[in-house]
Specification:
Blueprint lengths: L6 H20 L36 H21 L5 H15 L6 H10 L5 H14 L3 H6 L1 H9 L10 H25 L11 H4 L5 H16 L3 H5 L2 H10 L5 E4 L8 H5 L5 E2 L2 E2 L9 H5 L5 E4 L4
Antiparallel strand pairs: 1-4, 2-3
Helix pairs in contact: 1-8, 2-3, 2-5, 3-7, 4-5, 4-8, 5-12, 7-10, 8-12
């Protein structure tokens, strides 16, 4: 049942849905090659993901190096989670922004990733895509919370004392936009066999030191919104996040308060993603940031198999 929201919120939600679907349907202009940054030939492949000279290859566009870095940061994220060493998490976010973001050009691009796994499943894109999926099956959205450079940059610029929190009910309704974007994107790629919105992911233009005026403007807008709102792109528009949110419902281990929980709701108030509810996490929104662990006065929060 859809939560009750006021008329202005309903109009805003409808507008966001129309804009999202419109971008997915009409955003072909974002596929125009940028005048900045390296060309496909310069990085060893063509626009179709084939190696120079017409020979097909599994690893293209330095994918092997990206895979190694992604595995390393994912392993570090799991170590932080299992040891509850969340004080190191912000350092991990900074490393992600620097290495996966600025050095490697933004890995994985949330909009491109869900398209490349369909269009280029016979290449290393498949392995890159499977890493966050496997993490989601094991623990939930570890990749989103600690590895993704796009989410990391949003969180690092966020100022909590200036935060404007979205009411949880409206936040849950807005998350539907994220799922609709995923459905529209996959449907369009399946129907046309071409990618769309290339370079439109916020911060992609920054990470690649280029882009179009529109993509730079979108990136700047999301960056400003991130100062006051916790991870706005992740929570409302990220298609990869929408897919991982679905997979996270099947997670093997999750965040939950145990028998010591005194129902003080300190964890609820501490969670910037509004993923905690009475000592139990909502896996589709939980980023495994550890704030609930720090806020719990009795140490009741732990990583355990979810109750079925």
């Amino acid at each position: 049942m859809v939560p009750h929201v006021n008329r202005r919120a309903r109009y805003g939600i409808v507008a966001l849905i129309l804009v999202t679907v419109g971008f997915a349907a009409l955003g072909q202009g974002f596929g125009t090659p940028s005048g900045f940054g390296p060309s496909a030939a310069a990085v060893g492949g063509d626009a179709q993901g084939r190696t120079v000279g017409g020979r097909d290859g599994f690893f293209v566009h330095d994918q092997l190096a990206k895979l190694v870095v992604l595995l390393g940061l994912s392993g570090a994220a799991i170590a932080v989670l299992l040891t509850h060493a969340f004080r190191w998490r912000r350092l991990l976010l900074a490393v992600s922004v620097i290495v996966l973001g600025f050095v490697l050009g933004g890995v994985l691009c949330p909009i491109a990733a869900v398209q490349n796994v369909i269009l280029k499943a016979g290449t290393g894109y498949l392995l890159l895509f499977l890493i966050p999926v496997v993490l989601a099956v094991l623990f939930g959205r570890v990749f989103c919370g600690s590895v993704c450079p796009f989410g990391a940059l949003q969180e690092l610029v966020h100022v909590r004392r200036w935060a404007l929190r979205i009411p949880p009910r409206i936040g849950r309704v807005l998350s539907v936009v994220r799922s609709l974007f995923l459905v529209a994107l996959v449907a369009r790629v399946a129907a046309t066999g071409t990618s769309v919105l290339d370079g439109a992911t916020p911060f992609k233009a920054f990470f690649e030191f280029g882009g179009t005026p529109v993509t730079v403007a979108v990136s700047a807008l999301v960056l400003v919104l991130s100062i006051f709102t916790f991870r706005p792109f992740c929570r409302v528009a990220c298609p990869l996040g929408a897919f991982l949110a679905l997979v996270s419902r099947l997670r093997i281990f999750g965040v939950r308060g145990g028998a010591k929980c005194v129902s003080c709701k300190q964890c609820d108030r501490a969670c910037a993603a509004d993923a905690m509810c009475g000592g139990k996490s909502r896996p589709e929104e939980c980023l495994l940031c550890g704030d609930c662990f720090a806020a719990c006065p009795v140490g009741a929060i732990s990583i355990v198999p979810p109750r079925r």
